[in-house]
Each structure stands twice: as C-alpha cells, then as structure tokens.
Amino acid sequence: MCGIAGLFLKDHGLEGQLGALLAGMLSPLSDRGPDSAGFAVYGPESSGCIKLTIRGPYGGDFELMLTALGNSIDMTTEPRRHDTHVVVTIPAEYESRARQLLLTFPEAAIVGAGRRMELFKEVGLPDEVSRRFKLDQMVGTHAIGHTRMATESVVSTNGAHPFTTGNDQCLVHNGSLSNHNAVRRDLAKQGLTFRTENDSEVAAGFITSKLRAGCSLEEALTASLDALDGFYTFVVGTESGFGVLRDPIACKPAVMAETEQWVAFGTEYRALVDLPGITSASVWEPEPAQVYLWERQ
Amino acid sequence: MPEIDLSRSAVRELNAALHGLPVDTNETHWRVLNPRGQHAVAVGLERPIVVNIEGHVGYYCAGMNQLATIVINGNAGTGLAENMMSGRVCVKGDASQSAGATGCGGLLVIDGNASARCGISMKGIDIVVKGSVGHLSAFMAQAGNLVVLGDAGEALGDSIYEAHIYVRGTVHSLGADCIEKPLGERHKADLQRLLRAAGVGQTVDVSEFRRFGSARRLYHFHVDNVGSY
User: Fold this and answer.
1) Quick one: B3-218 is in which CATH superfamily?
2) Which CATH superfamily is domain A45-115 in?
3) pLDDT for A253-279, tens place per residue?
4) Which of A51-60, A261-270, B52-61 has the lowest mean pLDDT?
5) For a Cys staple, A112 with which of A12, A38, A42, A53, CB 3.0–4.6 Å?
6) At what angle do helices A199-212 and A217-227 cross, to 10 degrees?
7) Which residues of B touch A272 (CB under 8 A)?
8) In this complex, is the C-beta atom of B52 within 8 Å of any C-beta atom belonging to chain A?
9) Which top CATH class is A3-44+135-295?
10) pTM (two decimals)
11) In chain A, whose CA is at the least distance from the CA of B76?
12) What is the dihedral of CA B58, A8, A230, A112, to 10 degrees?
C-alpha cells in the first residue's frame, strides 16, 4: 500500500498554508500507510546558507550536539526544534565541516539538507507525526509527503520516507522493487552508503547516482525505468518543483489535479478533497512510464 | 426521494440502508451527496432502484450490482462496477483502472476515459466507453462486449477468450492472441444495440468501428511448443 501526497503552489498567497494543506492530504492516506509518515517541505531560504535537518540522538543529548555545532560553526539562526528533529541553518561553506562533526554523534542523522528543503519523518500514525512536527505551521512553495505500510523492510524511522537523494532532493515511493539487492550492491561499489535494507532507499540512491553523473532529473527518472524492476510510483521533490513517474504497467494508483492555484498529486483522490477549488480542478491519472515535472518559474 | 449525505453518514450506513430495501420498495430513487472519493459506495445492490451519486467516488463503487441503476456525476476510482451481475452503471466523468472487471452482466457506460485494464476478465458484461481506454484492456476477457469510441492503449485484448471488442479510434497494439476480425452485419446490429443503450445510437456510425477478438491459438496446448516447457 503506502500513500503519497504532493502539493506545488502556483499561487504565492497560499504559501502560508502549505503545511496545513499537506497535513490535510496525508490524513486520509493513513488507511494506506499507518506505520510511519514523513514529508519534505520547501520553505524560505537564507542567502548563502544551507539548512540541515538532523534527527537528534535517541535518548541522547540534543543540547550537547547543538553546542558542539555552535562552537565550531556560526549558525545563521537559532536551531529550530521539531520534536525528534532539529533544523540548523549554517553558511553553505561549512556544510562538510558540519557533516564531519556530526559523525561524532553516531545516534544522530542528517535526514535532509538543502537551501530550501526541510525533511521530517517518524514512526507513528500520519496525523500524529504531522502534529508532533507541527506540519500545519510550515510554509513554503511545495511539499511532498508519504504514509508508509512496510512490506519490504522493518518499520523504523530510517525506513520511513522521504529518502534524500542529495541536497534539496528527496524521493517517496509507493510500491515494491524486486531487484533492489542487486542494484544496492552496484551502487555500493560506486561508493554510495545505505542505512537500511529498504527498497525505496535503493531507488533514491539510484536517482542520486544518476544526478551525480550529470543527468537531469528527467533523465534520471527515465533511466530508472530500465534499471529498477518491480512496481512503483515515485514522486521526487526538487528545489524548484517535483517529478512523478509510474512504472510501465501503472501498478500503483495515482491521481493528479490542477487549478490556477496549485498542482497536486495523491495516491487516491481522497487526499485531494480538501484542497481549495478542488471541485473545479482538472483531475487525471498520470500515464505509465512517463516522466512528469513541475518547476517553479 | 431519500438523500444521504456522506459528509454526515458513513458509507456503511448508506449501504446497509440500500441492502435493507424490500423487494417491493417504493423508495426507488436515491441521491448520495459528498462521496469525496470514499470507497465501496453503493455496492452489492439487489433492487431495481436508481441511485444518483453527486461527486467523485473512490474504489469499487457499484461493485457486484444487480438490477440497480447507479449514476455517478463525477469520476470513479479503481474497480468501478467490479463483478456487476446486471443493471446499469453510468459514470459521467472518467473511470480509473479495472472498470467493469470480472463483470458477468449488465451495462457499464463511461462517458469519459477509462484507464488501464478496463474490462479485465469480463464474463458477460457490456461496457461502452465514450472516451479512450488504457493499456491491457479486456485482458483475458471471456464474454460480453467492450465498445470504445476513442482509442485503445497497449496490448488490447491480451489472452482474450470469446468477448467482442469494438474500437472506433486507434489501437496502440494488440495483446497476445488478439486479432482484428471482420465487422459483419450481425456485429453491426449488436454494436448498434449497445450504442443505443449508451445513448449515442443516433450520433455514432457503427461502420466506423473495427472489431477484435480471439485468434483461439492459446486455447489448446500445441505440440510444436513442447520444447518451451
């Protein structure tokens, strides 16, 4: 099962409601994925800075980690705590130093990084996860979210979606890949590291490797049609928009809707029913094996 | 006319009310409001009543229908009218995948497009799609008719048995053992009957259609293939 929701705002007037709208989309998808949930929100950027979303050390000392970071790097703004995660904003040139330093806190993990992307995911019912992270208060231009029903690997925070595929990029997946072990071995030879046995993390790793090799997102998604075996609907978030790809036989459901104000993706139409103007939206199903991209101008 | 608002009542309450109708019910016309994509709306009906649903429905709407006429003023999700036995289901918008799957009888009319696997394993149902159908439509179709006024996607009629397929537009590709067959007078009459039942008998010319069916090469084991096993 699993559920995916994605919302891309064309109307800047709605940006203050982005998180609340996404929370409303994820809620009915609880039926499809009650074990964990997550979302990536593309919000405001600070010039020359990068945001790291860090899942704090379980039972460990958040403050110790943040103090160590603060002693080493000038933080642009106060760290912003969201339940088990914290968002720190640092000058972009200190990203690798921050990543090195965080290696000394093995219980902590950088779940997402980017100029605009913040990424949150946890085990629990989607409504509960949204509430804990205060999703309804988040603002931005676009966001993607996921509700998980685990089929391939254990229910854990690391196994929840989205999976980061590089700075300002992430992937959510509905489906099941059958050749993920072979692809994981190939990617590991290229130097990619994996935190889980999860098939979706392999899909994210595959997209990452293609992007690193210089492919565009469209080329990377097209390449996955040949490389990844199984059934899938992918939604990929980028700094300026999102992309959608369904497997060649369209095994997994997907609905898109568009108005003058927004473009939305839902695994089911139920995810879209509370969006403003939905009754007059154009509603359609994305075609199989076709890459769709929406980009902010 | 009984009216049920699904923003206030559960789908279970609606279906229980419809299942509880006596054979000689006078409540023959129902209206359902605010379905909001919910699943299993108006399934398993057994009385010759009319149910109008105002809005988009989710999965399996009108499944297992017998005798009832169900009209959806919106789009329908996966498995519309799945395993329908008789009666009539009409969707004014588009239908998602597997519309009319395994249907044994009755008429399903889709005013818009149907996506993948329309009429998969159909067993006697008649389906008229005024738009186009997606890939693998009429897969393993056993009996009944699939009429498509628009185009058909990849692998139409794959592994088909004895169902009839009529397509007015283009066919992307035919599936295994599905071939084009001559459109005879008998077929034209049958097609005219179906188009009339779908409300387009006056406006659509039956001679514009092509007929597809089974080459019957997969019916029996062929000794030439013994090396493949």
Assistant:
1) Glutamate synthase, alpha subunit, C-terminal domain (2.160.20.60)
2) ACT domain (3.30.70.260)
3) 999 999 999 999 999 999 999 999 999
4) A51-60
5) A53
6) 130
7) 37
8) no
9) alpha beta
10) 0.92
11) A269
12) -130
